[in-house]
Specification:
The protein is mainly alpha-helical. It contains 27 helices and 9 strands.
Length: about 475
Protein backbone atom coordinates (compact mmCIF):
# COMPACT_ATOMS: atom_id res chain seq x y z
CA UNK A 1 0.00 0.00 0.00
CA UNK A 2 1.33 3.44 -0.93
CA UNK A 3 2.35 5.50 2.09
CA UNK A 4 0.31 8.66 2.40
CA UNK A 5 3.45 10.59 3.32
CA UNK A 6 5.14 9.59 0.06
CA UNK A 7 2.10 9.74 -2.24
CA UNK A 8 2.47 12.12 -5.21
CA UNK A 9 -0.01 14.97 -5.16
CA UNK A 10 -1.41 17.73 -7.30
CA UNK A 11 -2.74 20.85 -5.56
CA UNK A 12 -5.65 19.83 -3.35
CA UNK A 13 -5.64 16.22 -4.58
CA UNK A 14 -4.14 13.11 -3.03
CA UNK A 15 -3.03 10.20 -5.24
CA UNK A 16 -2.93 6.72 -3.79
CA UNK A 17 -1.60 4.77 -6.78
CA UNK A 18 0.69 5.04 -9.79
CA UNK A 19 -0.37 7.06 -12.82
CA UNK A 20 -1.21 4.00 -14.95
CA UNK A 21 -3.68 2.75 -12.33
CA UNK A 22 -5.25 6.20 -12.10
CA UNK A 23 -5.54 6.38 -15.87
CA UNK A 24 -7.15 2.92 -16.09
CA UNK A 25 -9.60 3.70 -13.27
CA UNK A 26 -10.61 6.87 -15.12
CA UNK A 27 -11.11 4.91 -18.36
CA UNK A 28 -13.31 2.29 -16.69
CA UNK A 29 -15.47 4.98 -15.08
CA UNK A 30 -16.07 6.67 -18.43
CA UNK A 31 -16.18 3.71 -20.82
CA UNK A 32 -18.32 1.71 -18.40
CA UNK A 33 -19.71 2.02 -14.92
CA UNK A 34 -16.50 1.92 -12.93
CA UNK A 35 -14.17 -0.96 -12.23
CA UNK A 36 -13.68 -3.12 -9.18
CA UNK A 37 -10.15 -3.26 -7.89
CA UNK A 38 -9.70 -6.69 -9.51
CA UNK A 39 -10.89 -5.33 -12.87
CA UNK A 40 -8.55 -2.36 -12.59
CA UNK A 41 -5.60 -4.63 -11.75
CA UNK A 42 -6.38 -6.86 -14.72
CA UNK A 43 -6.56 -3.86 -17.06
CA UNK A 44 -3.29 -2.42 -15.72
CA UNK A 45 -1.57 -5.74 -16.42
CA UNK A 46 -3.07 -5.78 -19.91
CA UNK A 47 -2.11 -2.17 -20.67
CA UNK A 48 -4.12 0.95 -21.42
CA UNK A 49 -4.29 0.70 -25.21
CA UNK A 50 -5.13 -3.01 -25.14
CA UNK A 51 -7.91 -2.28 -22.65
CA UNK A 52 -9.29 0.43 -24.94
CA UNK A 53 -9.37 -2.05 -27.83
CA UNK A 54 -11.10 -4.66 -25.71
CA UNK A 55 -13.75 -2.13 -24.69
CA UNK A 56 -14.22 -1.02 -28.30
CA UNK A 57 -14.94 -4.60 -29.42
CA UNK A 58 -17.68 -5.81 -27.06
CA UNK A 59 -18.74 -8.43 -29.58
CA UNK A 60 -15.63 -10.43 -28.61
CA UNK A 61 -16.94 -10.85 -25.05
CA UNK A 62 -19.77 -13.25 -24.19
CA UNK A 63 -23.23 -11.77 -23.90
CA UNK A 64 -25.36 -12.32 -20.83
CA UNK A 65 -26.94 -15.75 -20.63
CA UNK A 66 -30.02 -14.83 -18.66
CA UNK A 67 -32.99 -15.23 -20.98
CA UNK A 68 -33.71 -18.78 -19.84
CA UNK A 69 -33.74 -17.74 -16.17
CA UNK A 70 -35.93 -14.74 -16.91
CA UNK A 71 -38.43 -16.77 -18.92
CA UNK A 72 -38.65 -19.42 -16.21
CA UNK A 73 -38.73 -17.36 -13.04
CA UNK A 74 -39.48 -13.73 -13.85
CA UNK A 75 -42.59 -13.41 -15.95
CA UNK A 76 -42.72 -9.64 -15.60
CA UNK A 77 -39.18 -9.25 -16.96
CA UNK A 78 -39.96 -11.77 -19.69
CA UNK A 79 -43.03 -9.91 -20.98
CA UNK A 80 -41.48 -6.46 -20.33
CA UNK A 81 -45.00 -5.08 -20.09
CA UNK A 82 -44.37 -2.90 -17.05
CA UNK A 83 -42.01 0.06 -17.05
CA UNK A 84 -40.38 -0.88 -13.72
CA UNK A 85 -39.69 -4.43 -14.90
CA UNK A 86 -38.15 -3.14 -18.12
CA UNK A 87 -35.99 -0.66 -16.20
CA UNK A 88 -34.89 -3.48 -13.90
CA UNK A 89 -34.02 -5.60 -16.94
CA UNK A 90 -31.68 -2.88 -18.25
CA UNK A 91 -30.11 -2.33 -14.83
CA UNK A 92 -29.42 -6.06 -14.63
CA UNK A 93 -27.52 -5.79 -17.90
CA UNK A 94 -25.58 -2.73 -16.68
CA UNK A 95 -24.61 -4.54 -13.48
CA UNK A 96 -23.59 -7.86 -14.98
CA UNK A 97 -22.52 -7.22 -18.56
CA UNK A 98 -18.97 -8.07 -19.61
CA UNK A 99 -19.50 -5.50 -22.37
CA UNK A 100 -19.54 -2.25 -20.36
CA UNK A 101 -18.98 0.11 -23.28
CA UNK A 102 -21.85 -1.52 -25.17
CA UNK A 103 -24.19 -0.66 -22.29
CA UNK A 104 -22.68 2.81 -21.90
CA UNK A 105 -23.16 3.54 -25.61
CA UNK A 106 -26.76 2.31 -25.37
CA UNK A 107 -27.31 4.76 -22.50
CA UNK A 108 -25.70 7.54 -24.56
CA UNK A 109 -27.86 6.92 -27.63
CA UNK A 110 -30.98 6.53 -25.47
CA UNK A 111 -30.33 9.99 -24.06
CA UNK A 112 -29.74 11.48 -27.51
CA UNK A 113 -32.59 9.70 -29.33
CA UNK A 114 -34.92 10.04 -26.34
CA UNK A 115 -37.98 7.80 -26.76
CA UNK A 116 -40.43 7.44 -23.88
CA UNK A 117 -42.74 4.77 -22.57
CA UNK A 118 -45.14 7.49 -21.42
CA UNK A 119 -46.49 8.05 -24.92
CA UNK A 120 -46.00 4.56 -26.32
CA UNK A 121 -47.51 2.60 -23.40
CA UNK A 122 -45.35 -0.25 -24.69
CA UNK A 123 -42.24 -0.73 -22.57
CA UNK A 124 -40.88 -3.62 -24.62
CA UNK A 125 -40.82 -1.44 -27.73
CA UNK A 126 -38.40 0.94 -26.00
CA UNK A 127 -36.34 -2.00 -24.70
CA UNK A 128 -36.11 -3.29 -28.28
CA UNK A 129 -34.79 0.13 -29.30
CA UNK A 130 -31.99 -0.20 -26.74
CA UNK A 131 -31.11 -3.56 -28.30
CA UNK A 132 -30.70 -1.69 -31.58
CA UNK A 133 -28.25 0.64 -29.85
CA UNK A 134 -26.30 -2.35 -28.52
CA UNK A 135 -26.02 -3.87 -31.98
CA UNK A 136 -25.14 -0.67 -33.81
CA UNK A 137 -23.92 1.81 -31.18
CA UNK A 138 -20.26 1.58 -32.19
CA UNK A 139 -20.90 1.30 -35.91
CA UNK A 140 -21.42 3.84 -38.66
CA UNK A 141 -23.62 6.78 -37.69
CA UNK A 142 -25.48 6.39 -40.98
CA UNK A 143 -26.48 2.85 -39.99
CA UNK A 144 -27.57 4.04 -36.55
CA UNK A 145 -29.81 6.71 -38.08
CA UNK A 146 -31.21 4.24 -40.60
CA UNK A 147 -32.09 1.70 -37.91
CA UNK A 148 -33.55 4.49 -35.77
CA UNK A 149 -35.74 5.62 -38.66
CA UNK A 150 -37.06 2.07 -39.03
CA UNK A 151 -37.55 1.57 -35.30
CA UNK A 152 -41.25 1.14 -34.43
CA UNK A 153 -40.86 2.89 -31.06
CA UNK A 154 -39.38 5.97 -32.74
CA UNK A 155 -41.97 5.86 -35.53
CA UNK A 156 -44.72 5.92 -32.91
CA UNK A 157 -42.94 8.40 -30.62
CA UNK A 158 -42.48 11.05 -33.30
CA UNK A 159 -45.63 10.28 -35.27
CA UNK A 160 -44.08 9.02 -38.47
CA UNK A 161 -46.91 6.47 -38.61
CA UNK A 162 -49.06 9.54 -39.35
CA UNK A 163 -46.70 10.84 -42.05
CA UNK A 164 -48.46 10.32 -45.39
CA UNK A 165 -47.69 11.50 -48.90
CA UNK A 166 -50.93 13.48 -49.08
CA UNK A 167 -50.63 14.77 -45.46
CA UNK A 168 -47.00 15.00 -44.29
CA UNK A 169 -46.23 15.03 -40.56
CA UNK A 170 -43.02 16.93 -39.83
CA UNK A 171 -42.28 15.69 -36.30
CA UNK A 172 -39.65 13.09 -37.15
CA UNK A 173 -38.08 15.10 -39.97
CA UNK A 174 -37.69 18.08 -37.64
CA UNK A 175 -36.18 16.20 -34.69
CA UNK A 176 -33.91 14.20 -36.99
CA UNK A 177 -32.27 17.50 -37.94
CA UNK A 178 -32.65 19.50 -34.74
CA UNK A 179 -31.88 16.96 -32.01
CA UNK A 180 -30.52 13.80 -33.61
CA UNK A 181 -27.90 14.92 -36.11
CA UNK A 182 -27.19 18.59 -36.89
CA UNK A 183 -28.58 21.03 -34.35
CA UNK A 184 -30.50 24.27 -34.73
CA UNK A 185 -29.16 26.80 -37.25
CA UNK A 186 -27.85 24.30 -39.80
CA UNK A 187 -31.00 23.72 -41.84
CA UNK A 188 -34.12 25.57 -43.01
CA UNK A 189 -37.84 24.96 -42.65
CA UNK A 190 -37.87 23.81 -46.27
CA UNK A 191 -35.25 21.18 -45.35
CA UNK A 192 -37.55 19.94 -42.57
CA UNK A 193 -40.45 19.66 -45.02
CA UNK A 194 -38.29 17.81 -47.55
CA UNK A 195 -37.07 15.38 -44.89
CA UNK A 196 -40.62 14.69 -43.73
CA UNK A 197 -41.78 13.98 -47.29
CA UNK A 198 -38.84 11.64 -47.81
CA UNK A 199 -39.86 9.52 -44.80
CA UNK A 200 -43.49 9.11 -45.87
CA UNK A 201 -44.44 5.44 -46.02
CA UNK A 202 -42.06 4.46 -43.17
CA UNK A 203 -44.59 3.11 -40.71
CA UNK A 204 -45.63 0.35 -38.29
CA UNK A 205 -47.02 -2.78 -39.91
CA UNK A 206 -49.35 -3.98 -37.17
CA UNK A 207 -50.29 -0.71 -35.45
CA UNK A 208 -54.06 -1.16 -35.77
CA UNK A 209 -53.97 -4.70 -34.41
CA UNK A 210 -51.71 -3.63 -31.56
CA UNK A 211 -54.09 -0.83 -30.60
CA UNK A 212 -56.90 -3.36 -30.28
CA UNK A 213 -54.72 -5.75 -28.31
CA UNK A 214 -53.56 -2.98 -25.96
CA UNK A 215 -57.15 -2.27 -25.00
CA UNK A 216 -57.43 -5.87 -23.74
CA UNK A 217 -54.08 -6.29 -22.04
CA UNK A 218 -53.30 -9.25 -19.88
CA UNK A 219 -50.21 -9.12 -17.68
CA UNK A 220 -49.95 -12.88 -17.72
CA UNK A 221 -48.07 -14.64 -19.13
CA UNK A 222 -46.66 -13.23 -22.38
CA UNK A 223 -47.53 -9.55 -22.78
CA UNK A 224 -47.76 -7.84 -26.14
CA UNK A 225 -46.54 -8.77 -29.57
CA UNK A 226 -43.68 -6.62 -30.88
CA UNK A 227 -44.40 -3.83 -33.31
CA UNK A 228 -42.92 -4.35 -36.78
CA UNK A 229 -41.55 -1.86 -39.31
CA UNK A 230 -43.18 -1.65 -42.72
CA UNK A 231 -42.35 0.44 -45.78
CA UNK A 232 -45.49 1.31 -47.77
CA UNK A 233 -44.48 2.21 -51.28
CA UNK A 234 -47.99 3.38 -52.10
CA UNK A 235 -47.80 5.99 -49.31
CA UNK A 236 -44.34 7.34 -50.17
CA UNK A 237 -43.95 10.78 -51.78
CA UNK A 238 -41.80 10.17 -54.86
CA UNK A 239 -41.86 13.74 -56.10
CA UNK A 240 -38.73 15.87 -56.45
CA UNK A 241 -37.38 17.43 -53.24
CA UNK A 242 -34.58 19.85 -52.39
CA UNK A 243 -32.74 19.08 -49.15
CA UNK A 244 -29.62 20.84 -47.85
CA UNK A 245 -28.80 22.02 -51.36
CA UNK A 246 -29.36 18.64 -53.03
CA UNK A 247 -32.27 17.90 -55.36
CA UNK A 248 -33.78 14.53 -56.22
CA UNK A 249 -36.60 12.05 -55.62
CA UNK A 250 -35.24 11.27 -52.18
CA UNK A 251 -36.30 8.59 -49.75
CA UNK A 252 -35.29 8.43 -46.10
CA UNK A 253 -32.01 6.60 -46.66
CA UNK A 254 -30.84 9.22 -49.15
CA UNK A 255 -31.74 11.97 -46.66
CA UNK A 256 -29.54 10.22 -44.08
CA UNK A 257 -26.68 9.93 -46.57
CA UNK A 258 -26.80 13.69 -47.14
CA UNK A 259 -26.96 14.40 -43.40
CA UNK A 260 -23.87 12.29 -42.72
CA UNK A 261 -21.79 14.35 -45.16
CA UNK A 262 -22.53 17.64 -43.41
CA UNK A 263 -19.71 19.16 -41.30
CA UNK A 264 -22.42 20.31 -38.88
CA UNK A 265 -23.32 16.67 -38.21
CA UNK A 266 -19.73 15.77 -37.38
CA UNK A 267 -19.43 18.69 -34.97
CA UNK A 268 -22.82 18.05 -33.36
CA UNK A 269 -22.22 14.35 -32.65
CA UNK A 270 -18.63 15.03 -31.55
CA UNK A 271 -19.95 17.58 -29.06
CA UNK A 272 -22.50 15.13 -27.66
CA UNK A 273 -19.86 12.41 -27.27
CA UNK A 274 -17.47 14.83 -25.58
CA UNK A 275 -20.16 15.95 -23.13
CA UNK A 276 -21.12 12.38 -22.23
CA UNK A 277 -17.67 10.78 -22.07
CA UNK A 278 -15.25 13.59 -21.22
CA UNK A 279 -16.65 16.66 -19.47
CA UNK A 280 -19.80 18.59 -18.74
CA UNK A 281 -17.93 21.70 -19.96
CA UNK A 282 -17.32 21.87 -23.73
CA UNK A 283 -13.84 22.23 -25.24
CA UNK A 284 -14.08 23.39 -28.85
CA UNK A 285 -10.56 22.24 -29.72
CA UNK A 286 -11.21 18.72 -28.46
CA UNK A 287 -14.65 18.58 -30.09
CA UNK A 288 -13.06 19.73 -33.36
CA UNK A 289 -10.54 16.88 -33.11
CA UNK A 290 -13.34 14.34 -32.70
CA UNK A 291 -15.32 15.94 -35.54
CA UNK A 292 -12.29 15.60 -37.84
CA UNK A 293 -12.16 11.87 -37.04
CA UNK A 294 -15.90 11.58 -37.73
CA UNK A 295 -15.40 13.18 -41.15
CA UNK A 296 -12.27 11.14 -41.94
CA UNK A 297 -14.03 7.84 -41.21
CA UNK A 298 -17.43 8.84 -42.64
CA UNK A 299 -19.07 8.65 -39.25
CA UNK A 300 -17.48 5.53 -37.80
CA UNK A 301 -18.32 5.83 -34.09
CA UNK A 302 -15.81 3.16 -33.01
CA UNK A 303 -13.01 5.20 -34.59
CA UNK A 304 -14.24 8.41 -32.98
CA UNK A 305 -14.37 6.71 -29.57
CA UNK A 306 -10.86 5.31 -30.04
CA UNK A 307 -9.63 8.82 -30.80
CA UNK A 308 -11.43 10.09 -27.70
CA UNK A 309 -10.06 7.47 -25.27
CA UNK A 310 -6.49 7.81 -26.59
CA UNK A 311 -6.50 11.61 -26.69
CA UNK A 312 -4.49 13.97 -24.51
CA UNK A 313 -7.67 15.79 -23.46
CA UNK A 314 -9.15 12.55 -22.11
CA UNK A 315 -5.91 11.64 -20.32
CA UNK A 316 -5.47 15.10 -18.81
CA UNK A 317 -5.90 15.11 -15.04
CA UNK A 318 -8.38 17.97 -15.29
CA UNK A 319 -10.77 15.63 -17.13
CA UNK A 320 -10.98 13.28 -14.15
CA UNK A 321 -14.01 13.78 -11.95
CA UNK A 322 -15.23 16.41 -14.43
CA UNK A 323 -18.66 14.85 -14.97
CA UNK A 324 -21.56 14.27 -12.62
CA UNK A 325 -22.63 10.63 -12.78
CA UNK A 326 -26.13 10.18 -14.07
CA UNK A 327 -28.46 8.28 -11.72
CA UNK A 328 -28.23 5.15 -13.91
CA UNK A 329 -24.43 5.32 -13.81
CA UNK A 330 -24.39 5.85 -10.06
CA UNK A 331 -26.87 3.12 -9.16
CA UNK A 332 -25.65 0.59 -11.73
CA UNK A 333 -21.99 1.23 -10.93
CA UNK A 334 -22.52 0.92 -7.19
CA UNK A 335 -24.38 -2.37 -7.60
CA UNK A 336 -21.50 -3.65 -9.76
CA UNK A 337 -19.06 -2.64 -7.04
CA UNK A 338 -21.15 -4.27 -4.30
CA UNK A 339 -21.61 -7.46 -6.32
CA UNK A 340 -25.38 -7.40 -5.83
CA UNK A 341 -28.03 -8.69 -8.24
CA UNK A 342 -25.79 -11.32 -9.81
CA UNK A 343 -28.89 -13.29 -10.79
CA UNK A 344 -32.28 -11.96 -12.00
CA UNK A 345 -34.58 -11.22 -9.08
CA UNK A 346 -37.61 -9.00 -8.58
CA UNK A 347 -35.84 -6.76 -6.05
CA UNK A 348 -33.89 -5.15 -8.86
CA UNK A 349 -37.03 -3.09 -9.47
CA UNK A 350 -36.15 -1.31 -6.22
CA UNK A 351 -32.91 -0.17 -7.88
CA UNK A 352 -34.95 1.06 -10.83
CA UNK A 353 -37.04 3.12 -8.45
CA UNK A 354 -33.88 4.58 -6.91
CA UNK A 355 -32.85 5.79 -10.37
CA UNK A 356 -36.32 7.24 -10.90
CA UNK A 357 -36.27 9.07 -7.57
CA UNK A 358 -32.95 10.67 -8.55
CA UNK A 359 -34.54 12.18 -11.64
CA UNK A 360 -33.78 9.73 -14.44
CA UNK A 361 -36.53 7.37 -15.54
CA UNK A 362 -34.63 5.29 -18.04
CA UNK A 363 -36.90 4.22 -20.92
CA UNK A 364 -39.11 7.18 -20.08
CA UNK A 365 -37.20 10.45 -20.65
CA UNK A 366 -39.22 13.61 -19.94
CA UNK A 367 -39.16 15.06 -23.50
CA UNK A 368 -37.64 14.41 -26.91
CA UNK A 369 -34.66 16.46 -25.67
CA UNK A 370 -33.81 13.75 -23.16
CA UNK A 371 -32.45 14.69 -19.75
CA UNK A 372 -30.64 17.85 -18.76
CA UNK A 373 -27.35 16.53 -17.40
CA UNK A 374 -24.31 17.79 -15.52
CA UNK A 375 -25.02 19.79 -12.38
CA UNK A 376 -28.74 19.54 -13.11
CA UNK A 377 -28.54 15.98 -11.74
CA UNK A 378 -27.78 17.52 -8.35
CA UNK A 379 -30.17 19.33 -6.07
CA UNK A 380 -30.82 19.05 -2.35
CA UNK A 381 -33.38 16.25 -2.65
CA UNK A 382 -31.56 14.28 -5.34
CA UNK A 383 -28.25 14.44 -3.50
CA UNK A 384 -29.77 12.91 -0.37
CA UNK A 385 -31.31 10.16 -2.52
CA UNK A 386 -27.98 9.51 -4.29
CA UNK A 387 -26.06 9.23 -1.01
CA UNK A 388 -28.65 7.04 0.70
CA UNK A 389 -29.00 4.66 -2.25
CA UNK A 390 -25.24 4.23 -2.69
CA UNK A 391 -24.76 3.68 1.03
CA UNK A 392 -27.54 1.09 1.17
CA UNK A 393 -25.88 -0.96 -1.59
CA UNK A 394 -22.55 -1.05 0.27
CA UNK A 395 -24.01 -1.73 3.73
CA UNK A 396 -24.40 -5.51 3.43
CA UNK A 397 -21.03 -7.13 4.22
CA UNK A 398 -22.18 -10.49 2.81
CA UNK A 399 -22.38 -9.17 -0.74
CA UNK A 400 -19.53 -10.53 -2.90
CA UNK A 401 -18.18 -7.14 -3.94
CA UNK A 402 -18.32 -5.70 -0.42
CA UNK A 403 -16.68 -8.91 0.85
CA UNK A 404 -13.86 -8.52 -1.71
CA UNK A 405 -13.25 -4.93 -0.54
CA UNK A 406 -13.10 -6.00 3.10
CA UNK A 407 -10.70 -8.85 2.31
CA UNK A 408 -8.39 -6.51 0.40
CA UNK A 409 -8.45 -4.01 3.26
CA UNK A 410 -7.56 -6.80 5.69
CA UNK A 411 -4.62 -7.81 3.49
CA UNK A 412 -3.17 -4.31 3.89
CA UNK A 413 -2.39 -4.93 7.56
CA UNK A 414 -3.68 -6.68 10.68
CA UNK A 415 -3.70 -3.43 12.63
CA UNK A 416 -4.51 -0.13 10.89
CA UNK A 417 -4.50 3.45 12.10
CA UNK A 418 -7.18 5.91 10.92
CA UNK A 419 -4.89 7.13 8.11
CA UNK A 420 -4.05 3.61 7.05
CA UNK A 421 -7.68 2.51 7.13
CA UNK A 422 -8.80 5.41 4.92
CA UNK A 423 -5.92 4.67 2.55
CA UNK A 424 -6.59 0.93 2.33
CA UNK A 425 -10.38 1.36 1.88
CA UNK A 426 -9.91 3.81 -0.99
CA UNK A 427 -7.36 1.50 -2.61
CA UNK A 428 -9.60 -1.54 -2.23
CA UNK A 429 -12.44 0.34 -3.96
CA UNK A 430 -10.23 1.45 -6.84
CA UNK A 431 -10.58 5.12 -5.87
CA UNK A 432 -6.99 6.28 -6.20
CA UNK A 433 -7.54 10.04 -6.31
CA UNK A 434 -9.41 12.12 -3.74
CA UNK A 435 -9.22 15.66 -2.49
CA UNK A 436 -7.38 16.42 0.71
CA UNK A 437 -10.72 17.46 2.21
CA UNK A 438 -12.30 14.07 1.40
CA UNK A 439 -9.35 12.17 2.83
CA UNK A 440 -9.34 14.28 5.98
CA UNK A 441 -13.08 13.58 6.45
CA UNK A 442 -12.47 9.82 6.20
CA UNK A 443 -9.66 10.02 8.74
CA UNK A 444 -11.81 12.15 11.04
CA UNK A 445 -14.54 9.50 11.04
CA UNK A 446 -11.99 6.77 11.90
CA UNK A 447 -10.12 8.76 14.53
CA UNK A 448 -12.48 7.89 17.45
CA UNK A 449 -11.83 4.21 16.68
CA UNK A 450 -8.09 4.77 17.31
CA UNK A 451 -7.22 1.66 15.30
CA UNK A 452 -8.93 -1.36 13.80
CA UNK A 453 -7.63 -4.86 14.44
CA UNK A 454 -8.22 -7.85 12.18
CA UNK A 455 -5.76 -10.08 14.05
CA UNK A 456 -7.91 -10.95 17.02
CA UNK A 457 -11.06 -13.04 17.03
CA UNK A 458 -12.81 -10.74 19.48
CA UNK A 459 -12.21 -7.62 17.32
CA UNK A 460 -12.31 -8.95 13.74
CA UNK A 461 -16.09 -8.66 13.30
CA UNK A 462 -16.11 -5.13 14.66
CA UNK A 463 -13.19 -4.21 12.38
CA UNK A 464 -15.14 -5.44 9.36
CA UNK A 465 -18.11 -3.31 10.39
CA UNK A 466 -15.76 -0.32 10.59
CA UNK A 467 -14.67 -1.01 7.01
CA UNK A 468 -18.31 -1.17 5.92
CA UNK A 469 -18.95 2.20 7.59
CA UNK A 470 -15.91 3.69 5.89
CA UNK A 471 -16.90 2.53 2.41
CA UNK A 472 -20.42 3.90 2.93
CA UNK A 473 -18.86 7.29 3.63
CA UNK A 474 -16.65 6.94 0.56
CA UNK A 475 -19.62 6.41 -1.76
CA UNK A 476 -21.13 9.58 -0.28
CA UNK A 477 -18.01 11.56 -1.20
CA UNK A 478 -17.81 14.19 -3.91
CA UNK A 479 -15.40 12.07 -5.95
CA UNK A 480 -17.66 9.05 -5.96
CA UNK A 481 -20.62 11.13 -7.14
CA UNK A 482 -18.48 12.26 -10.08
CA UNK A 483 -16.90 10.27 -12.87
Amino acid sequence: MTSMQNAPTTPGRIKLADEESNRIAHLLRRAGFGGTRAEIDRAVAQGYEATVEELLHPELQPDLEIEDLIRRYHTDQNSLMLLESSQGYWLYRIINSRRPLEEKMALFWHGLFATAYGKLNHAKAVVNQTHTFRRNGLGKFADILLELSRDPAMIFWLDNKDNHKDAPNENYGRELLELFSMGIGNYTEDDVKAAARSFTGWTIDNAEYMSIRASRDSFWPYGRIDWQFRYRDDDHDESEKTFLGHTGQFDGQEIIDIIIRQPATAHYIAGKLYNFFVSDRPDESAIGDLADEFIRTEGDIRSVMRRLFLSDFFADESARFARVKSPAELVGGTARLAGSHRTPEWTICNLAMDVNFMGQEILNPPTVEGWHTGMEWIDTGNLVERINAAGAEMRDTSRPGVRAIIDRVKSAGDVQSPNQLADSCLNAMGMFEVSEGTFDSLVAMATPWSEVRFDREDTAACAEERVAEMIQLIVASREYQLA
